[in-house]
Amino acid sequence: MTTIGRSRVKSGPAWTHAAQAGLIVGLVALLETATQTGLISPMVLPPPSDIGVRLAEIVPTAAFAQDLTTTVSTVLIAFVVGAILGLALGIGFWRFPFVGAVFEPYLVSMYSMPTLVLYPILLAILGVGAAPIVVIAASMAMIPVALNTMVGLRAINPSLPKLAKSLNCTRVQLYWKILAPAATPLIVPGLVLGFIYAVIGTIAMEFILAPNGVGFRIGYFYRSFDIVDMYAYILVASIIAITANVLLNRLERRIRQDMQ
Amino acid sequence: MTGPAKTLRSDTEEPTVVDTTAATATGSGVVLDGVQVVYPTSDGSIEAVRHASGTVSDGRFVSLIGPSGCGKSTLLDVVGGLLATAKGSVSINGETVRGPRRDTAMVFQEDSTLHWRTVLSNVAFGLEIAGVSKKEREARARDVINLVGLAGFEDRHPRELSGGMKQRVAIARALLLDPRILLMDEPFGALDQQTRMFIGRELLRVWDETRKSVLFVTHDIQEAVYLSDEVWVMSARPSTIKSVITVDLDRPRVAGTMADPRFHELTTEVWELLRVESEKALQYRGELP
Ligand SMILES: Nc1ncnc2c1ncn2[C@@H]1O[C@H](COP(=O)(O)OP(=O)(O)O)[C@@H](O)[C@H]1O
Ligand SMILES: [Mg+2]
After folding, report:
1. Average pLDDT over chain B, rounded to an integer
2. What is the rounded average pLDDT for all residues in chain A?
3. Spatial distance between the Cα atoms of A74 and A69, rounded to a whole number of angstroms
4. What is the mean pLDDT of residues A242-251?
5. Three-class secondary structure of residue A137 per DSSP
6. Which positions 151-180 of B are in contact with A (Cβ < 8 Å)?
């Protein structure tokens, strides 16, 4: 039974992956033709082959290494800060339902609010540099973590805390052996979403106000009409986001499998 | 002590170990003495249980039956040390219950298996919390798994089990703690009738082998009579234990027990008592004129 189920599931994604790869290849080929024939102006989109060549030139440079390091480390810091705050908030809202009820609608509306527009205020408070970027990206990352943590804890079957109590669990045992694993199926997707938000927040803020980083380069080349370079960096940003997403989804699936 | 029902402390850093061997002889078994439980709510307080008294003598199987919402779970939680009384007390072998004890173990109505753990690790969970080594607790867990008929499922996860099997896991986890008193809150409430009957028989077989005292909450009259030595009928809320019916059917109970005219008499008697209370409860809730 299980083996049949598994092999079916395996052949499914294999075909899907092939089709997805085909779609990308087709799209690139289409854009290449359209740009080479002048159907699309090179000021809008240069030929993908030019972008590829430029990317290969950029990648080995020291400047690129520095930009990449800056962006990746900013994302990581923002994510860690956002995740810790989000977990703490989520636990707090769950422990103190009144506080949760008061803050929840604001937190939910922050999902839809473009947090990025707060940057002038932060700029005034924190000045130019890494600080406002981390603050914005971390607060964006924090929201899905906090909400999913709260929802995950609330969804726990009430007989589990009762069980913990009847077994005289210590507080540490209650959190680590019962609440955390029980809420993990919802907390992990929150963390994954939080990471993606940290990436988006970091690159977007770099675009506006950083002295370096991948997002900064995109803005810089945009403003100096280096369209090919701009696209090369857009490609870098996309690759970072996609890689992060793929790795995190894989991690999520692994954790869920281990937990269930 | 009057006042709102308080949750008893359970989050102390050290598990409280109650030495049951030192219990004094005064009132052996579980003694409920004028238990009153009041829940504080945002709009006033709810008196869930008004005055409950009764004794579960050693090794007896007692069922608690009553209209829904009359305070059965509440009363069981009090005996299990999860809830404090507003008035009155519960004592076990002469010691007042002040929190969860080592000599009681609970089985809940809803699924309380830990879905990320295997059957073996679920069953051993209570001993893990009590600090028993992995090797020892798993060896002991395997014995109990055999006893409840889950042999071969040790490495499965709860999602691979039926509702009845999950309840067996919960029962095995409770049994592994080797409590003197088993507190079961509608453990088969979510199961279909056939499964209930079957697993009820299994429970009796296990009980025969272990001879623990059992306080068993149910809303099923036949189940109550079939399993028990005594059936306690609770009144509608605010509740009291209205009547105690002694079930004088022979043990071991067998499939034929239900065909016994005495079985029919007893279930009818329980039903008559319950009917009055259920009507009151339904009228109170506006579901009956
Ligand atoms: N935590 C609680 N807070 C307030 N009221 C409660 C709480 N738990 C139970 N009650 C109320 O107490 C009464 C008894 O509940 P319960 O013991 O669960 O009944 P039963 O198990 O007999 O169906 C019910 O009216 C219920 O609404
Ligand atoms: Mg109940």
Report:
1. 89
2. 88
3. 8
4. 89
5. helix
6. 157, 159, 177
